[in-house]
Each structure stands twice: as C-alpha cells, then as structure tokens.
Design a protein that fits this description.
alpha+beta; Beta-Lactamase; Helix Hairpins; 4 domains; five-stranded mixed beta sheet; 11 helices
Length: 467
C-alpha cells in the first residue's frame, strides 16, 4: 500500500457510499416498480461491499493502534527493548518507524544514565567517608555502607534521617542545606562513641541534600597530643630554666658572694643544666624512634646474650647505688631484633627500676620462651605501682610520683621510648605490679625459628598476686 493510500481510500469510500445512496434514492422515485427493485438491490449490494471493505480496513487500523498502545505501555514500564513490527509503508508505518527510533534512543540514553549511576554508586561505596542523600522532606534516599556502619542499620531508604541519626549539629547542617540551600559545615560527636566527624551538607538541584561525614578522630587526637606535648615540654624546660636564672641573678646581684655560696649555687645550676640536657637527649631519642625514617638493623641474636650484655653494661652503675643486679636466666635461642635498640630498652627499664629499688635492694633481669616469641623481664622490689597508673605509664611525660621522679632527674620519656622501640622491633610491652611487692616490666621479641617451648631450670619471677 503506497503512502497516502489510507487518505485516498477513505475519500473514495465516502464518495462511493454517497453516490450509491443518491443513485438509489433518485431511482426509487423515477423508475417503475420492477426497475426500482433492481436499482435498490444494486444499491444495497454496493453499500454492503463498501461497508465490508471499510470494516476490514478499520479492523486492521485498530489492530495496529493497539500494538502502538501496547508498545507505549511497555516503554512506560521500563522495557526499552520493545519495538513495533512495521509491515507496510503508509502513514501509520511512518509513525511506527519514528516510535521505534525514539525507543532505541531512549534505551541508549537510559543505559548511559544507568552506567553512570552505577559508577557513581561504586565510587561512593568505596569512599572512606560516610555519605547519605536525603530528599527535600528529610527522608533517606540513599546511603553508602560506611554511613550504615556509622549510623546503624536504621539508615534505610525511605526512613526519615532524624529517626536514625540524632546528633543535633548534623541535623542542623542538614536543615541548613534543605531550607537555606547553602553548604553547611559542622562537627558531630555523638554518632559513635569516642569518634568525631566533620559534617558537610550540600544542597542538591532537586531540593534534597547530600551529607558527607569525614572521620577526624585521629586528627583531633594528634592535635590534642601535640598540644599536650608542647605544654609538657615547655613545663619541663621552664622549671630548670627558672632555677638557673634565679641562681645566676643572685650571684650577679651579690658583689662579694662567699666561695661556699658560689659553689653551692653553681652546683645547683649544673644539676639543672644536666637535667635539661637529659630532657633534650630523650626528646631527640623519642623523635627518632617515632619518625617514619627510623631504621633498624634487625638480625638474629640470642636472648641470653641480650640479657648478659644488659647486666654487664649497667652492673657498675647499679652497684654504685647499693642495689644488686641479678640474672634469673635466659634461653639460648635466637630472636629477631636490633641489638643496639634493645640495649637502650634494657637501659631505660633498669634505670627506671633503680629509682624505686632502694627498698628491695634488688633488680632481676631474665627471659623465657613463649610459643613464637621470647618474653624478657626487668623486675624491682620497690613500693610498686597502683593499678590506676598501669595503663598510662608508657605515655610521654606521665609520672607515677612526680616529685620523686623530678628529684631523681627523670624526664618522663624513658618508658615512652621503650614502648616505641619494642613495637618497632615487632614486640609487645606491658607492666604488672602490686603495691608493696614491686613492679615487673615485660617485653617480647619474635623468635627466629618458633619451636616447642623447652623447660627451663629457672624461669623469670612474676609479680604475684596480680591486681
């Protein structure tokens, strides 16, 4: 069927029907009875044929229109692969072909949009930040897995955000983005225990908002630690500096000081200068072991050699103070460690014990094998450490007895240095103590070749009973 045939057929059928009815009507009035019947019969036959042809054409058009309607319904339901079979070349076929082209373009555009949506969702899912999108009404539209971990499983699409996340500053930022259509920044502290989040809420074009939570807990902890460190260093330096300044000014103001007074003041000045020098050295040592560039020369070394070297190096200093340094034995098995840094660990632990060992007059050093590591011990028999201090004793500048520590020249950094060196060597460090029974400091180093633990003739003593 050629183009425009449908229009022509409709016109011809209408003309034929009109002519037939006119002919029939005139014939009935002008001709006689027999002729009138013949003409009437011919007219009725022509009308019947015309009506039959019209019904066939209308039915065919109706079928094609139903296919177009079904096609439109399929597209509306998301089936972008639906197509219309084009069987002819009339006006309807032009419409059908155009609809097919439109459906193909819509399907292509939809696939591109879905691909971009999936890429965006994947990127948001892999972010370390928690992200949630809310509608203009404040209900959750979408959230990534990090947000679901932070806010709990209640952060579901379709639920109001306020029902699952009740931090006031976060909700204030969301309201600002939804109502004022501006980027809002805040700080949420009640979403997860002990964690701090920076909140950024930005408006979306459709009236909703996108909320991003960045975990700044470690950053804030580092800033707090840095502020405390600066304050502690300033305090530790201020005390000897003030003392030095005061005694120097006194000597300057006295035109004729006695030799005894001069020697006494110079001794105090020297003592405080030595204290500042020890603090400076400990600060440099701590900065070195905490630096990412801190290099170790890890090598296999026998545990008993480490213990014997520590006793030999520090035995003279300990004996001068009237305290006996004893060995409780150590296994002749290899550990992986940097000998120089472990010697520093023993030095700091023994010097620390020496400050509190005057009552017990003994310090015992030893080691014993565990499953895959060797445990080293430095124990004194002094007054011991109260349980509330045990978890903090390895912090920088933390002192159990501040007055006694400063009197003995301690800087409060020795145990912090020990902790970092042991951990860099792949070990662990801790302390056990009972008041009145002394304190035992333990640290471990990994074995060269882990093996079944042999029985030792003498194992290091442990502080009993443990608190």
């Amino acid at each position: 069927m050629k183009p425009k045939v449908f229009t022509k057929l409709v016109t011809i059928f209408a003309a034929v029907l009109t002519v037939q009815f006119l002919v029939s009507a005139v014939a009935l009035f002008m001709m006689g009875g027999p002729v009138r019947g013949t003409v009437l019969g011919v007219g009725l036959l022509s009308v019947s044929v015309a009506l039959l042809v019209a019904v066939v054409i209308v039915h065919r058009i109706a079928v094609r229109l139903r296919r177009i309607v079904q096609f439109a319904r399929s597209i509306g339901e998301g089936d972008h692969s639906a197509r219309i079979d084009v069987e002819s070349e009339d006006e309807l076929s032009e419409i059908e072909s155009t609809l097919n082209l439109t459906a193909a373009q819509v399907g292509k555009n939809f696939k591109e949009l879905e691909s971009r949506r999936q890429e965006l969702a994947t990127m948001l899912d892999t972010l370390q930040e928690a992200v949630v999108a809310v509608t203009a009404e404040g209900t959750v539209r979408w959230s990534n897995p990090v947000m679901q971990r932070v806010g709990g499983l209640q952060v579901l699409a379709g639920r109001p955000l306020v029902h699952s996340m009740r931090d006031p500053e976060l909700l204030a930022c969301v309201r600002g983005a939804l109502e004022r259509h501006e980027v809002c920044v805040g700080r949420a502290t009640s979403l997860a225990h002990g964690r701090v989040f920076e909140v950024n809420a930005a408006p979306l074009p459709d009236g909703g908002a996108l909320v991003v939570l960045h975990d700044v807990t470690s950053i804030e902890a580092a800033q707090t630690s840095r502020r405390e460190f600066v304050a502690n260093v300033s305090h530790e330096l201020r005390t000897p500096l003030t003392s030095i300044q005061g005694y120097v000014e006194t000597l300057i103001e006295d035109p004729n000081p006695s030799p005894e007074t001069t020697l006494e003041f110079l001794g105090i000045i020297l003592k405080n200068a030595a204290r500042m020098n020890r603090l400076t050295e400990d600060l440099l040592a701590l900065a070195s072991v905490e630096s990412p560039d801190y290099k170790l020369h890890v090598q296999p070394v026998r545990a008993d050699v480490l213990v014997d070297d520590a006793i030999a190096a520090l035995g003279g200093i300990v004996m001068d103070s009237g305290v006996q340094l004893e060995s409780t034995g150590a296994p002749a098995m290899g550990v992986l460690a940097d000998p120089d840094s472990i010697s520093q660990v023993f030095g700091n632990l023994i010097e620390n014990s020496l400050k509190y060992a005057a009552d017990g007059k003994r310090i015992r050093v030893g080691a014993r094998p565990l499953v895959s590591e060797v445990e080293f011990t430095v124990r004194d028999f002094g007054p011991g450490i109260a349980s509330e201090h045990l978890n903090r004793i390895f912090e920088r500048f933390y002192r159990v007895d501040k007055a006694r520590s400063r009197e003995s020249g301690g800087t409060g950094l020795g145990l912090a240095i020990v902790k970092h060196i042991v951990e860099v060597n792949g070990g662990r460090v801790w302390v056990e103590s009972v008041l009145g029974q002394g304190a035992a400091f333990y640290f471990t180093l990994p074995m060269v070749d882990p093996q079944p633990v042999p029985e030792m003739e003498q194992a290091p003593e442990r502080v009993e009973p443990l608190s």
